[in-house]
Write a structure and sequence with these properties.
The structure holds 2 protein chains of 2 kinds. By secondary structure, chain A is an alpha/beta fold. Chain A has 10 helices and 9 strands. In chain A, about 35% of the residues lie in helices and about 25% in strands. Chain A starts with 7 loop residues before the first strand and ends with a helix. By secondary structure, chain B is mostly helical. In chain B, α2 crosses α11. The longest helix of chain B has 29 residues. The chains are: A alpha/beta, B mainly alpha. The interface between A and B is medium-sized, with 36 and 29 residues.
Chain lengths: ~240, ~270
């Protein structure tokens, strides 16, 4: 599958990946192109998040290969699932967002002007400038996710990986977040999102990857709606 | 009265070491408490007691034995806590109560509960040797320098380990550093404030500061200040009323906690009304 002559950023070839020594998913082959919006979907425990961590280099591959072209593992913004630690963590919005610049900083013990500006820019971009000095734990779920987006964008302008970004949010906030992701994708950010919200996925994403311990489907959202597995998963 | 007190060298030394231990434990406490590892400090101090008793019974230098043992225990406990399959808190309780049991048996078989053992249980701040003071000073410098230089990295690893790893921060290395420093702080702190109470120095200042302050930086700075203030006030009060020093320091911390809760509550209330 080639795409308007553009080269892939990431190539996954027959990847098998384990979680806690148990095989989580295998037989995964797909390419990620610049500007893609891919949604990885499937039931709980189908290996979606594990695959995402594999792409980030956080989970070792059992077999197969992931190649990166013109982008390094460290240049990928990541929006992990929220942990219970974060929910009442005393940190200001600004502190959380600028920590996304840490990878760029190397061994320098402070953030320079460029990094501080990048943090401010991304705070502005996600419409949370008025929350900049507020404590992360005082924010609503949707506001917290915006902070996480801003942090991920500080780490990378080019590609962000989202792990269940809409879980536990009410429908209105979910719609807002989807429109943020759409906007970012239109700005040229490559998006890979893990979600079990299949109807949202086919509406929003350009491509779908369906996992059920093996890769059952990879193609455009339109193709997915027509496919057997897509029909089955969507009519649940 | 203060000038009188400060004219004694052993009191100056006690204050010097105590203040440094207070700063170190508060800084490490921020990371440990926020990551729900509060019990590790407690567990380590009990392991330290076990190691100390065995060392005293065998007539070898207590610090030389207990520092490596406690470091080992620190790694073990952090590793177990990371592994979600095993109940971390239960294992910490197992290790710490076993260490105390071992320490008590060894003590009763040999010397009995003598002054040395007693002083490690409840601290003996006024009998700190020059060597201990140097070790405490060196440790405090290391902890403070690491904290200032790597403040943002420690924040990132504490707040969100997987994001930090994904963007190239070596979370494993930093967990190791925190475990190492915690172990050393606990062992040195045992001399000052005692096995039974050292974990309070790690936990109290952070919890106190979290009642009022909202950013990571302000909580960290406040924790260090509260810790030092509570220590100095506690020592002064213990002198004035002839109460046990370590216990008085802990009670001072408790009073500070109550005070900060009150301030935090008033702030919240006024925001709701305003």
């Amino acid at each position: 599958m080639t795409e308007k002559g553009s080269k892939p950023l990431i190539k996954c070839r027959d990847v098998a990946i384990a979680y806690d020594k148990l095989l989580a998913a295998e037989g995964i082959t797909f390419d990620v192109f610049e500007g893609d919006y891919i949604c990885i979907t499937g039931e709980n425990g189908s290996g979606k998040s594990t695959l995402l961590k594999g792409i980030l280099g956080l989970n070792p591959l059992k077999s197969g290969k992931i190649d990166y072209f013109g982008i390094s593992k460290r240049e990928i913004g990541y929006l992990p699932q929220q942990t219970s630690i974060q929910r009442d963590f005393p940190a200001s919005v600004y502190e959380v967002v600028i920590s996304g610049c840490l990878g760029k900083r190397g061994i320098r013990p402070y953030y320079n002007k460029k990094e501080r500006q990048l943090a401010d820019y991304n705070i502005e971009r996600l419409g949370i400038a008025d929350l900049k000095k507020r404590s992360y734990r005082e924010l609503s779920g949707g506001q917290q996710q915006r902070v996480m987006f801003a942090r991920a964008l500080c780490a990378s302008e080019r590609m962000i990986l989202l792990d269940e970004p809409i879980t536990g949010l009410d429908p209105m906030v979910t719609a807002e977040l989807y429109s943020i992701i759409r906007q970012l994708n239109n700005d040229g950010v490559t998006v890979i999102m893990v979600s079990h919200d299949a109807s949202g996925a086919i509406r929003e994403a350009k491509k779908i990857l369906h996992l059920d311990t093996t890769m059952k489907f990879f193609g455009t959202a339109e193709e997915y709606i027509q496919s057997d597995i897509g029909k089955r998963f969507l009519s649940r | 009265m203060i000038m009188d007190l400060l004219s004694y060298e052993f009191i100056r030394r006690a204050l010097f070491v105590g203040v440094l231990v207070a700063v170190c434990s508060a800084l490490l406490g921020v990371s440990l408490v926020l990551r729900r590892y509060s019990m590790i400090g407690d567990g380590l101090s009990h392991v330290g007691f076990g190691a100390m008793s065995v060392a005293l019974a065998m007539n070898v230098a207590p610090l030389a034995v207990s520092i490596p043992v406690v470091i080992l225990a620190a790694f073990l406990m952090l590793r177990i806590s990371e592994n979600s399959k095993i109940k971390g808190d239960a294992v910490i309780a197992l290790i710490s109560s076993s260490s105390i049991a071992l320490g008590v048996i060894v003590t009763s078989l040999t010397s009995g509960l003598n002054v040395d053992v007693y002083s490690y249980m409840f601290g003996s701040i006024y009998s700190i040797s020059k060597d201990d003071a140097w070790i405490a000073g060196g440790l405090a410098c290391v902890v403070i320098i690491i904290w200032v230089l790597f403040f943002d990295k420690i924040f990132a690893v504490t707040f969100d380990e997987s994001f930090a790893s994904a963007t190239g921060t070596k979370s494993g290395v930093w967990n190791t550093v925190i475990a190492l420093l915690t172990a050393i702080t606990v062992v040195v702190g045992m001399r000052v404030i005692g096995t039974l109470l050292i974990s309070s120095l790690i936990i109290f200042p952070v919890l106190t500061s979290m009642q009022v302050f909202k950013s990571y930086k302000s909580v960290t700075i406040s924790a260090a200040c509260v810790s030092v203030a509570a220590f100095v006030i506690g020592v002064a009060v213990s002198f004035a009323f002839s109460t046990p020093t370590a216990a008085t320091v802990v009670v001072t911390n408790l009073v500070c906690f109550g005070l900060f809760c009150l301030i935090g509550g008033i702030r919240k209330g006024s925001r709701k009304n305003g």
